[in-house]
Amino acid sequence: MTSPAAHAAPLTGRAAFGLGWRLTWLAWLIGVLSRVALYARPTPYGGAYVRHWDRYFFHSAFYGLMGVFAVALPFLAWWAWRADRPARRARVAFAALTALLAISVGTDHVDHETQRFMGLHPTPSLIATYGHIGTTGTIGESFATDLGGAWLPHALLLVLLGAVVLGATWIWRRRRSSTRTIRRRWLAAAAILPVAAVAVAAATPGGKFRMRRVQPYLMTLYGELSADIRSGERPPDFDALVADAQRRWLDGSADLGWAFVDPAHPLVRAPLAPAAPATADRWNVILLQIETLRGWDVGHLRPDRPSPTPTLDRLASEGTWFRRFFTFGPPTVTGFLSGHCSLTPHSRLNITTSFTYTGLWCLPQMLRTHGYRTEYFTGSDPDWDGQAIWLDRWFDATHFYRDADEQDRVVFGRAADRIIEMGRAGPFMATVASITNHYPFKSREPALDVAGHEEVRDRILNTTHYTDAVIGEFLGRLSAEPWFDRTIVVIYGDHGYNLGEHDGTPGQRNGYVESYWSPLIIAGAPGRLAKGPRDDVATLLDVAPTLAGLLGFRQPNPWQGHDLSAGATREGALVHTKDDLTFAQTAGGSFVVDKDGGGRRFYAADDALQSRPIPGAGPDAAAALEARAAATARLMDYLIETDGVWRAPAPWPAPAL
User: Fold this and answer.
1) What gap in Å lies between CA 384 and CA 387, rounded to an integer?
2) pLDDT of residue 657
3) Which residues pair with 285 in a beta bridge?
4) pLDDT digits (tens, 9 = 90+) for 45-97
5) Is the Cα dihedral 89, 95, 101, 107 positive or negative?
6) Which of 406, 148, 128, 123 is nearest to 292 (CA)?
7) Does the predicted TM-score (pTM) go above 0.85?
8) Which residue among 270, 279, 488, 505 is least packed, with the fewest CB closer than 10 Å?
9) Are 571 and 248 in contact (CB under 8 A)?
10) Which of 577, 576, 596, 595 is nearest to 585 (CA)?
11) Sign of CA dihedral 217, 222, 225, 230
12) Most distant CA pair in the chain: distance in Å?
């Protein structure tokens, strides 16, 4: 039995180390429980978080050691160094360690739940992108309909944080119950143990994809911050990257009347014969950017099953449509920027939030310089994904109908009212962005439903059909206007959506066509664009240059896409890498790096659903496509980071009107 004096004596560093050591292991065990909740529950969409939990869970647990011990290391090292000295202010240090470990466990849990919902880590750039998502009912609706437990992520967060605090309190109160001493060599061995565990996990085959997915949030945060530190470093092969990109553009274009003119801005090209239409000959543009419009669910792209999109099917039959049109996948902001500016996304970060200093040259900007009125209409808060600052730069006015409660019928109806006014005043460009066809795919008008409500794959058919009906009503109103006969209507999806067709993990990002295949329909265009289906590969990058070509503008620009009205792209392709995903669509077929299923998969060009992998497809071709994707990322990341995308050539010959 110890004396009161002994109880009053300050703890030694050795004793404080023991307390911190036990607390750190406790925090790790609580983190393991968080991971159990992640892998044992379905995603919000009802599918498995991963198909083979055992391939991820144990690595996740090992990497969790790195997270908590990285936090505890300064405390443990200090106490170990002063093992035989009094650990003054041990209470304050122990409380600080408790707070930091609780934060570590809590942020890991938030990271896990964000991946359940979005397939993404909540990096600073993602948080900046979706920082205002709480201003709408979408996030609340998502939590309320979570098939892994309505609002359970919040309850689990409170339980985990409470467990760390209560456990720390219990450990501290029992600080005098043990008089055992710990030898220095055991202190050293204890410090090595978690490092060894993480080393075993890192050395186990599985690739960087698994590591990125299961790593503690501290590593994710460090990775983004260190990437930012490296931002702006000129690639050592920059000149070769530029030469290859310019050659590929020329090789792929049906219009060779262009020259690259600015070594400091290597994307900038100028026409050999500049042109602009006379004022009296100018056409209007209505661009409809449709939320989550999957090619998988559109009738004229899927003639094998009943169509939920009769309006789009009719418009396709009357205009030009593309069997192989591809986006860059989620999020919406990628479709927004690439469709208007013909720019490949950054390979890690969102341009709209991370590179607001970068000068871009986008279609509405160009049209404004020629007297067009440009306006943007949406039912989705432009601050969600950092659009607002760009909309102010590109458009004369932005209309956000917050009170529409994300109902496309309200948004499109009000947009039609304003567009009618614009059409009567002169040439215009109007972009209307839909929102209703967004997770959780809630039916707005049940009378229009064409499928059930239990499965996400049914609910998305209902909301797709709803938006299709709204588009029909919208265009029907506008078609009565005399100016409508001189109006080009372009419809495309911002991205697709993975419902588990290939990887069994609905809602998660992947590189298969369900995530990035979408319709592109061009209706009412001047005669130089042949009507009917097109089989050449088209991408979001082609939208802006095609519209400029149809309108008759040949002006300097940094656009990476091609004017599809000039003819079929000779080597059209989408080859892209984003974080840990790489995929490609080329004239010869499609390619996916299947990170979860393992290996690289090739599909024939006519296998639109990627249902029949080509056995033993060439590793050389796979390596070439991956290398091309990586090269594009190195070049584009550097140009975006260093404001090297656009500067208008000066002087350049303006055409006589």
Assistant:
1) 7
2) 37
3) 429, 488
4) 777 787 668 878 888 888 888 889 889 989 988 888 888 888 888 899 999 99
5) negative
6) 406
7) no
8) 279
9) yes
10) 576
11) negative
12) 101
Enter the DSSP assignment of 654. P
The reported pLDDT for the residue numbered 129 is 55
Q: Under a CB-based contact definition with an 8 Å cutoff, are residues 333 and 129 in contact?
A: yes
SS3 content of the chain, % helix, strand, coil (to 5): 50, 10, 40
Element (H, E) at 115: helix 90-118
Q: What pairs with residue 589 in β-bridges?
A: 586, 604
Distance in angstroms (rounded) separating the CA atoms of residues 627 and 205: 22
Across 44-53, 75-84, 98-107, 600-609, least confident range: 44-53
How long, in residues, is the chain? Answer: 657
DSSP letters of 20-40?
HHHHHHHHHHHHHHHHHHHHH
In order, the DSSP letters of 143-160 are: HHT-TT-TTHHHHHHHHH
Contact 353, 565 (CB under 8 A): no
pLDDT at residue 187, as a whole number: 61
Region class of 146: left (phi > 0), else alpha (psi between -120 and 50), else beta: beta
Q: Taking Cα atoms as reference points, which of 139, 138, 169 lies closest to residue 153? A: 139
How many H helices and E strands in the chain? 20, 16
Pairing state between β 258-260 and 397-400: unpaired
Task: State CA 525 to chain mean position distance.
Answer: 31
What is the pLDDT at residue 12? 86
HEC letters along 273-327? CCECCCHHHCCEEEEEEECCCCHHHCHHHCCCCCCCCHHHHHHHHHCEEECCEEC
- Give residue 622's pLDDT band: very low, low, confident or very high (50, 70, 90): confident
What token pair was written down for 529? 């664009």
User: Is pLDDT of 345 > 70?
Assistant: yes
How many whole angstroms separate alpha carbon 294 and alpha carbon 280? 38
Phi, psi values for residue 499, rounded to 5°:
-110, 25
What angle in degrees, to the nearest 10, is found between the helix axes of 152-173 and 90-118? 160
405, amino acid identity: D
pLDDT for 652 beyond 80: no
- Find out whether 543 and 494 touch, Cβ atoms under 8 Å: no
Q: Cβ of 576: how many Cβ atoms within 10 Å?
A: 24
How many Å apart are CA 366 and CA 362, to the nearest integer?
A: 6
Distances (CA, A) of 507 to 42, 241, 515: 11, 34, 9
Partnered with residue 559 across adjacent β-strands are: none
- Alpha-helix runs per DSSP H in 376-508: 388-394, 408-425, 456-478
What values do phi and psi take at 281, rounded to 5? -100, 10
**Cα-only R_g, the chain:** 28
| Predicted pLDDT of residue 6 | 44
3-state class (DSSP) for residue 431: strand
pLDDT tier for residue 208 given thresholds of 50, 70 and 90: low
**φ, ψ dihedrals at 192, nearest 5°:** -80, -30
DSSP 3-state of 2: coil
Distance of alpha carbon 470 from alpha carbon 291, whole angstroms: 13
pLDDT at 377: 97
- Identify the residue whose tokens are 């029907």: 476
What class does CATH assign to 238-272+294-641?
A: alpha beta
Show me where the domains of the chain are located. 4-230, 238-272+294-641
d(CA 534, CA 323): 6
